[in-house]
Fold this sequence. Notes:
Layout: H1 2-23, H2 29-47, H3 49-58, H4 65-111
Helix pairs in contact: 1-2, 3-4
Amino acid sequence: MIQQLLAILVIIFFFTRILNQKRKKKISNNEFWLWTFFWAIASLAIIFIKQIDQLAKMAGFSSSGINLLLYLAVMALFYLVFKLRLKMARQDQEITNIVRNIAIKQTNEEKK
Length: 112
């Protein structure tokens, strides 16, 4: 019970940080709602951890529900890292194209 209370307090802390970032207009509405949804789901998972334990047992996991949540979190993190890598590669290509176009434009202006 104490661990659940501490976890909820940590989530409240992070949510207040999100609210501050939103007020300062450092994050978009979409980001705000994404993080709000994420922390709401995390809160529900903490509140209903016993039911998740039962679900984990029904699904055939030999350990507790927190391990199931950890597995899901790791999978989500790998997916997000993959998406970030793709976005960075796309941005790198866009920067290369911009620099190339600027260099061609400067070369053409020097020839004139």
